[in-house]
Amino acid sequence: MTDPVAPAADRPEDAIEVYDPPAYQPGDKVQARISVRNDGTVWGVDIGEMVVHKGDVGYVRDIGTFLQRYYIYAIDFIDRGTIVGMRAKELVPDGAPLTREASRAHASAAAVPQD
């Protein structure tokens, strides 16, 4: 059984993220760690067309959840004029290396309570 209070970086991929605080907050500047194609949810863009490229910079606009398990961050990519829902593992803080390890380190640090 997964420990619900274990740091996010120590949890399996299917762990429930919402047991931890969000890795990002509205207003945080982030970079896309991956490229994203339209799955049909971005209006005015053909399905399969690239809506975000790896390294694009955006700002967290809002935080929601999916299936009561995962945080979904609404990222406003101002230069592209689009808002895309992404998970923390698909993002890194602006200026951080675009690696999965950087995403895990940020999520793990966010899970540590601040005094």
| Elements, N to C (H/E) | EEEEEEEH
Low-confidence stretches: 1-6, 109-115
User: At CATH's second level, what is the architecture?
Assistant: Roll
The chain-level structural class is mainly beta
Q: What is the distance, rounded to the nearest whole angstrom, between the alpha carbons of the first and last residues?
A: 29 Å
Quote the beta fraction: 25-35%
CATH topology grouping: SH3 type barrels
Helix content: 10-25%
Number of strands: 7
What gross morphology would you assign? globular
Number of helices: 1
Main beta-sheet annotation:
5 strands, antiparallel
Work out the count of structural domains.
1
Spatially, the strands of the biggest sheet line up as 6-5-4-1-7
- What's the quaternary structure here? single chain
What is the overall pLDDT average?
A: 80
Tell me the Rg in angstroms. Answer: 14 Å
CATH class, please?
A: Mainly Beta
